[in-house]
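Throughout our pipeline, every protein is held as a single compact record rather than as scattered files. This encoding replaces a full spatial description with a residue-level series of whole-number codes. The remainder of this section carries one protein's record, kept here as part of the documentation.
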Amino acid sequence: MSEAADITRWLDSAREGDRAALDRVLTTLYHELHGMARRQLSGQHGYTLDATALVHESYLKLLGARGSVHFDDRAHFFAYAASSMRSVVVDYARNRLARKRGGDLKRVAEIPEDVEGSLPLDEGTLALNNALDKLAAADERLAKLVELRYFAGLSELEIAELMQRSERSIRRDWQKARLFLLAAMQED
């Protein structure tokens, strides 16, 4: 049996409340999650949030939500993991800036075309988070794409494979999402 088939079977068991099955999924995918977190936090020197902490905090969010979330397949699991990573990064940036500036947040409107590299743990991440909430209200699929691309650090090809769509359609949707987010960030 292939690893993908095992993961699907374990996700089915986890959906039925089998904690050990969820642990097997997380153990199997830990290296992929850690690699995603390491790529996204590269270049962030002097911060207490590192790739291992990001994965572990995301894992705790997954466990905390396990009664209310169901993973249909590997793509759904990664979408939820990206959302969990987003939440951890945003909380970290919010807390860090609140300590640094006494809670006074300045918004920065920037979304790089090429997300290869690291997430800034600053005002821009918080502004992006607010804009992403607006995008999710308008188009949930585009919001998931942004989470996978920006917060999980997946390439357009990897997202296309996960979402079972063409790379070209993912690229087109990425451009639409960026335009929406930039406009929303400039409104604020």
Confidence is low (pLDDT under 50) at residues 103-110. DSSP finds eight helices and no strands in the chain.
